[in-house]
Write a structure and sequence with these properties.
Blueprint: H1 10-15, E1 24-27, H2 33-43, E2 47-52, E3 66-67, E4 70-71, H3 72-77, E5 81-85, H4 91-101, E6 106-109, H5 115-118, H6 123-127, E7 134-139, H7 154-160, H8 163-166, H9 181-204, E8 211-215, H10 216-221, H11 227-234, E9 251-255, E10 261-265, H12 269-278, H13 282-285, H14 293-298, H15 300-311, H16 316-325, E11 329-332, H17 336-341, H18 343-347, E12 351-356, E13 359-364, H19 388-396, H20 400-408
Parallel strand pairs: 1-2, 1-6, 2-5, 6-7, 7-8
Antiparallel strand pairs: 3-4, 9-10, 10-11, 12-13
């Protein structure tokens, strides 16, 4: 693990306000989509109160690489949050959450539709105690429609939303990137929806709350670019295309002499001409058939063969340097190990250090970068139930005796 320092100084962090300072969020989600949405909000200043099961907590605490009893992922996903343990299946626990909602601005949940209502914590229940609260719901298929009750894991919803159909090599099984993209996209959409609802509140000045309904499949569907109008207007059903992208040429991955891979995207007319001249193919640079994208699409195999022949003769670094000199978009495919040593990642401050006990751990910064009100990590994910007593005492006025009774009964 690298010991390189974070790029933003603690002094800068302490004096800069954040755009969501003062916003209080109660998070009842788990695993990824809901927690990622609130992690974004917390990074930009919101106070996050995360409700977890007293017995096990968020399953992410024990997923993937576990070190010293806790997932390394947890320290990142749980950043800037307070952990409060409450048994949501009990009436007493449900009442505590409703009481907490009185002084919260946003609720984030990502259970299957109907679960929150079964706990008397649905939007209508919360509206009785706080009609101004923004209620963000994340599910696989949304809160309405014939599929709304189905289990909605990212893997399934990525297929249903159209992403998996396009991803892979023609004639082979669709390929899944080794990430839960559907969950992450849903979290981004939820954070966006919450911020839009909050802006509306501020503009109208009436504090009116509303439900933000986010589904994983629709978050994926939102990424389909021209797929829908191309089918509607031309009857085209876009197919998987391996390492290329349909209708844009050249934009592909090529192998260099040292067996490393380079991505080259030279799909503007002028950039294509510069690329061809740089690789010694003046004949293709001046070929009238290739002077616009539609012509290049027709002759994609010819162009890719010319580029592949060139990259096979030189190393990755040499290819990148020559193409940069020519003003052609090109770059390597980086692993996380490559990212840690890459000067641009360091210059952009994409790794933040947190202390886990007496050990340093790097976690990723969260984009976007705001000039005057940047986000940052205050602290890594908390231990399970770390803030239960403090939150219930400060927000609800519970005494030590009250807490002891609740803890004995297994409510907290």
């Amino acid at each position: 693990m690298s010991d390189s320092p974070i790029t933003e100084s603690d002094t800068v962090k302490n004096i800069n306000p954040r755009p969501l300072d003062g916003l209080r969020v109660i998070e009842l989600g788990q695993i990824l989509a809901g927690p990622f949405a609130s992690a974004i909000l917390g990074y930009f200043g919101a106070e996050i109160i995360k409700i977890e099961s007293p017995a096990l907590g968020d399953p992410i605490r024990n997923w993937r690489t576990v070190k010293d009893g806790t997932s390394l992922w947890w320290w990142s996903l749980g950043r800037n949050k307070q952990s409060v343990t409450i048994d949501l299946k009990t009436e007493a626990g449900q009442k505590i959450v409703r009481d907490l909602c009185r002084d919260c601005d946003v609720l984030v949940e990502n259970f299957r539709p109907g679960v929150m209502e079964s706990w008397n914590l649905g939007p209508e229940n919360i509206k009785t105690v706080n009609p101004n609260l923004i209620y963000s719901r994340i599910s696989g298929y949304g809160q309405t429609g014939p599929y709304s009750d189905r289990p909605g894991f990212a893997s399934v919803c990525e297929g249903f939303g159209g992403f998996r159909y396009l991803n892979g090599v023609p004639g082979e099984l669709p390929v899944r990137p080794n990430l839960s993209l559907g969950d992450t996209l849903a979290g981004l959409h939820a954070a966006l929806g919450i911020c839009m609802a909050y802006i509306y509140q501020l503009k109208k000045g009436n504090g009116h709350g509303q439900v933000v309904d986010v589904s994983i499949f629709e978050s994926v569907f939102n990424m389909l670019e021209a797929v829908v109008p191309e089918y509607s207007g031309a009857g085209q059903i876009r197919q998987p295309s391996g390492s290329t992208i349909t209708g844009i040429v050249p934009s592909n991955t090529y192998r260099c002499k040292d067996k490393k891979l380079i991505i080259i995207g030279a799909n503007t007319n002028s950039m294509f001409e510069r690329l061809m001249r740089k690789i010694g193919r003046d004949d293709l640079a001046s070929d009238t058939r290739l002077q616009n994208n539609s012509g290049r699409v027709e002759h994609e195999d010819l162009i890719d063969a010319a580029i592949s022949d060139w990259t096979a003769t030189i190393s990755l670094n040499t290819a990148i340097c020559r193409l940069e000199d020519a003003g052609v978009a090109a770059g390597p495919i980086l692993s996380v190990e490559d990212m840690f040593t890459n000067p641009h990642f360091q210059a952009r401050g994409l790794f933040e250090e947190v202390m886990i006990g007496d050990k340093k751990l790097h976690i990723p910064a969260i984009a976007p970068k705001l000039e005057d009100t940047p986000g940052y990590t205050d602290n890594p994910g908390p231990i399970l139930g770390e803030h239960t007593d403090a939150v219930l005492q400060e927000m609800l006025g519970y005494s030590a005796t009250d807490l002891a009774k609740l803890r004995k009964a297994g409510i907290i």
